[in-house]
Amino acid sequence: MLDEVDRGLIHALHIDGRAPFGRIAEVLGTSTQTVARRYRRLRAEAALRVVGLPNPDRAGQTQWMIRLTATPSTVQDLAQSLARRADTSWVKLASGGTEIFAVIHASSDTQAVPTLLLHDIPRRASITAVSAHCLLHTYLGGPTAWRGHLEALTDEQQQQLEPPRATDPPASRPPASAPPASRSHAADTPASRSPATDEPTSRPPTTDTSAPRPPLTRADHDLIDALRRDGRATHADLAAATGVSQATVARRLADLRANGALFFDVEVAPVLLGATTQALLWMTVQPGHLDRVATTLAGHRELALVAATTGRTNLLANALCRSPADLHDYLTHRLGGLDAIHALETAPVLHTVKAAGPLTPATSFTRGN
Questions:
Q1: What's the structural domain count of the chain?
Q2: Distance (Å, rounded) from C-alpha 126 to C-alpha 61?
Q3: Rounded to two decimals, what is the model's pTM?
Q4: What is the reported pLDDT for 95?
């Protein structure tokens, strides 16, 4: 399990995935060395990773939830094959180990989902059933993190970690709380430095959200692809990966964050935060009540995803609970009290093969998460 500093670090990274360790250390009341050491340990032992992800609406993407049933002897290989695809995320084994769920990201100018459904999947004789559900609207998920990640810091600490906007005056950010007298300052870096080097951290400027937003360029997609692999990569590493200057990287990174085209997610096994039981909930809701029910569910601590979908069911949620008993309590009392939910199917998740970012040798999630 994680201690207070670990949880505070994870919460801080959700607020700003590229926050300098020195700034996080100030807020947590510890040293930069301690924060950096904890980050390295969590990366090695808990599969912690910060990943930069495109906002689907701004990136011209449509998301689909693919649901596959396969023979027990082939389901593991099939899940790994799906996880290796560049257009997938959240590949999960569920329902007794014979069912796979995966999110497919289809660009508006490609045929990714039709190709997968009409060509790639039919070639697998081991697949016994398949369905595809377009995610029509996401009420919870994406830039909005699961609340289980966000319970370590006070409101004041969270405010101190919010990246200042370019138009804010220098004094607009509240000062970090004074650290304990025993804290070591020798290794501290200025709060305006980047995660892994002493280069300045780019801060998103204020933008007019009503103004037309230009489409993402090929260079933008290249930058986001690099951030998918490591959301805390230095400007130098990003410049090398994209073939542009560090100044260009810093400027485009700030612009993408400011206009909502890019956000940062934190991957870590939920079991380490006490969520040992996970399930996908497929619900049928009266269409006239769908928005109200989905908005209500988006406020539930137990859920990490709430999305309206196509298909025989029209609302999908991902539940993270402390135990099977807590999941039962949630289903019978909280969901059971919503009369507009006409039907509910619960698919327990046994293993997460792939989370939001690309599959890497270091990616590892424990069974049940």
A1: 1
A2: 29
A3: 0.81
A4: 81
